[in-house]
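>> received
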Amino acid sequence: MRTNDSENAHGLDDYGLTNIGRVQINLNTPMLYEAVIKRREGAIAHLGPIVVRTGQHTGRAAKDKFIVEEAVSKDKVWWGKANIPFSQENFDKLYHRLLAYLQGKDLFIQDCFAGTDKEYRLPIRVINETAWHNLFARNMFIRAMPEELKNHKPKFTVLHVPNFMAMPSLDGTNSETFVILNIAKRIVLIGGTSYAGEIKKSVFTMMNYLLPLENVLSMHCSANIGKDNDVALFFGLSGTGKTTLSADSERDLIGDDEHGWSQNGVFNFEGGCYAKVIRLSKEAEPEIYQTTRRFGTILENVAIDTWTRRLDLDDDLLTENTRAAYPISHIPNIFEGETAGHPENIIMLTADAFGIMPPIARLTPIQAMYHFMSGYTAKVGGTEKGMGAEPEATFSACFGAPFMVLHPFKYARLLDEKIRRRNVDCWLVNTGWTGGPYGTGKRMKIAHTRAMVKAALNGKLNEVEMTVDPIYGIAVPKSCPGVPDEVLNQRNTWADKNAYDQTARRLARMFIDNFKQFEDETSEEVKSAGPKIIGTSGASHD
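>> returned
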């Protein structure tokens, strides 16, 4: 840890940071706790976690994320809804205004890494105007050892200034909030939002640009490893169970959100976890639950009694998106190596609120590419503010469209190459609704989902008879250890079979319409791997 009042300390003049206040670099966790309390940025809860508020910004600013359009990356970026171009001129103007704002301000710095594989890790620097966000960076990224700090040269910098607001009419932003990645200058500017997830996702976005250029697949997934060194990947959007299912007491956690897959194997990008904790169950998710009762954990927008300092994890008054950010060492069973082996199984998760997708199904490599590029789940009212009661289909390419800089087919092609080379088994798992859509059916029992995932990972599903879904073409097991047979066939769980057929065709059309955006650069084989809409007279169902 170092503290320095010099305005050009630690190379900050390289960023144009001058006339700044106190610079505190690489403070440890207790020191950052002290700074948070002294600066009244948060409160210490019962048993030691620190509770903070993010104000009106309780989630990602998806419409406020930009990439600077410049010569180095212009022809590689997949421009569109996820990657919105921002002019170099506007970037420079906003950057200079931000530098002026920081004059006289105290700064907190963490020097760390993204990526445990030393062959591909990215040295990063996170510069914050708040202590609790600096603690977040310390929790989430890979801490540099004292001997590594001596020669640490950042190749990517996060400049995070939540209290600085953009002026859309002057800066060319959509609002006061901005997340602007400059790939050529290896820096991201974040302002107007206190939601800490923007910090980690900005680094992830940069990794998603850099690694595929080295034939390394960057992935928005969790990963764990069994006692026989069998690695499993879990892809899924928020709310699908990615973090929950990978935190398995019988397996070691590699990481809960961001990974790379190189010729060396699978490796974690991060040194921590960022888990949703709304209505967290001590019984169903004991490992994650215990992290909310640990010193060092940051709890975003979690309700706390001001007198007893006890938490209420069920309270969603501020947001459904309550979060815990904690070092991965808070989980009891973790993989401690730099790189794990190559996956034997890939699980693609969906929380299908339409009640159509099978509880579990085997995917061919081509089907895996299709569903990977589709990245489907469905949200419902009550879990997302501003939504009605009807389910709403959500498609997010590669299960992380806002962070994928290149065309999704480039990531899918890398995935396919690695699946075929390693003969990986691929599965689609629905953690959503059964017996009907949201409002009629019920949520899939987590005990059943765990049993299905366990059977897939230990090879038991390779021994059972399969039936092919007539619309989606995926192979559905007729039996699974620990799961009643009637649960496995979604159509049979519906009282109204005609309603199932109509809803299945409706969802299939959504898949087809969504995939049209990829067709210009996607192979015909992958295009043909999607659902087929059958006639209104129906088709034979098992």
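>> Residues 497-515 form the longest helix (19 residues).
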